[in-house]
Design brief:
This protein is an alpha/beta fold. The chain contains 4 helices and 7 strands; from the N terminus they run βαβαββαβββα. A hairpin with a 7-residue loop joins β6 and β7.
């Protein structure tokens, strides 16, 4: 398990980090995004989708639970599970079936933590109260699948 902190000083840095991470992921990979509204989760997703030439496609999945983005090589599923009543609702929509069908980005994923496979990346976003452009990201890996992918960022 890797656990480290990263400071993003701008939306561009957040997007660049996401773009770089996207270049290393593949079908079956899962990223959980956590953090208050306006903390950078959508900017991260924009940068992630840019790697797959899908940045113009992004829309908030807030009312649909999941948006599907497809390019020729891979499907990306962008979940927002904030409005789910409980984990049973996630199972009812067949949510876990997406895990092996593409890359999943799950906002508010702590709500469905028990449904997640053992290997995933969790990124927690926090605003900097002293600088509106800064975001503090805490990146954790669960399982060991992603340790080699993220060790270049872990400078601790």
């Amino acid at each position: 398990m890797i656990n480290f902190n990263l400071t993003s000083h701008s939306e561009t840095e957040t997007k660049d980090f996401a773009y770089n991470l996207a270049s290393k992921l593949q079908k079956g990979d899962i990223i959980v995004l956590s953090g208050e509204l306006g903390s950078g989760k959508t900017k991260f997703t924009e940068g992630f989708l840019k790697y797959f030439n899908l940045e113009e496609e992004i829309s908030s999945p807030t009312f649909t639970i999941v948006n599907e983005y497809k390019n020729n090589d891979i499907n990306i599923y962008h979940f927002d599970v904030y409005r789910l009543e409980d984990i049973d609702e996630f199972y009812a929509i067949g949510g876990e079936e997406y895990f092996c069908s593409g890359i999943c980005i799950i906002e508010w994923g702590e709500i469905i933590e028990k449904a997640l496979p053992k290997d995933y990346i969790k990124i927690s976003f926090k605003k900097d109260n002293s600088d509106e452009n800064n975001r503090f990201l805490n990146i954790q890996t669960f399982g060991n699948k992603y340790d080699n992918i993220l060790k270049e960022y872990d400078l601790n």
